[in-house]
Design goal:
With about 180 residues, this protein is an alpha+beta fold. The protein folds into 2 domains: about 1-105, N-terminal domain of the delta subunit of the F1F0-ATP synthase (Peroxidase, domain 1, Orthogonal Bundle), CATH 1.10.520; about 105-180, no CATH class. The chain is built from 8 helices and 4 strands. It has helices at about 1-20, 25-40, 40-50, 55-65, 70-85, 90-105, 120-130, 165-180, and strands at about 105-115, 135-145, 150-155, 160. The longest helix has 19 residues, at about 1-20. The protein is elongated. The chain starts with a helix and ends with a helix. The mean pLDDT is about 90.
């Protein structure tokens, strides 16, 4: 819980500063990249959270990974985090920043689950379907073979389930209900 509050405060400060200086989109791209790097490399997250590793080493790692590749605001944040011994929450700050950015820009995250990767046409159709629910849509694609076919769309607390597994389950329930009532 404490990490969440800390992450929110740093992310909020960064988003305000980036918006004020007109580099909000660049910093968001940086945060997206930072999240991707941390997700791909679990050892990086472990090193950042390890209190035994010295701050200078962590600073050097972050500089080697991101210096020259990210906006100066982003690099300044990373430097500040190591100076304040907050490098353990870099991933959480980047994730929180993305949430705040989407909220500020009116972007809704729509999770689409299918059994195989979707085509560009399907992607456009899903965005069109959800356009009535939100002005801007960001698709997050997931693959789950358990749904057998079709798709499941989720946005906030709404869900459109057109999966084969759900339809088969409904048929099974109707059949069971009819057998019981017979």
């Amino acid at each position: 819980m404490k990490e969440t509050r800390v992450a929110y405060r740093y992310a909020k400060s960064l988003i305000d500063l980036a918006a004020e200086n007109g580099v909000l989109d660049q910093v968001n791209a940086d945060m997206t990249g930072i999240v991707a790097v941390f997700k791909q490399n679990s050892q990086l997250a472990a090193v950042m959270k390890n209190p035994i590793v010295q701050g200078e080493k962590k600073q050097a790692i972050l500089e080697a990974l991101f210096n020259g590749k990210v906006n100066t605001f982003t690099m300044s944040l990373l430097s500040l985090l190591t100076k304040k011994y907050r490098e353990a929450v870099v991933f959480e700050i980047a994730t929180e920043f993305q949430k705040l950015y989407r909220e500020k820009m009116g972007i809704k995250v729509v999770e689409v689950t299918t059994t195989q990767p979707i085509s560009d046409d399907q992607r456009a159709n899903f965005k069109r379907i959800m356009a009535s629910k939100a002005a801007k849509v960001e698709l997050v694609e997931k693959i789950d073979e358990k749904i057998l076919g079709g798709f499941v769309l989720r946005m906030d607390d709404q869900q459109i389930d057109e999966s084969v597994a759900t339809k088969l389950n409904k048929i099974k329930n109707k059949f069971t209900e009819q057998v019981i009532n017979y």
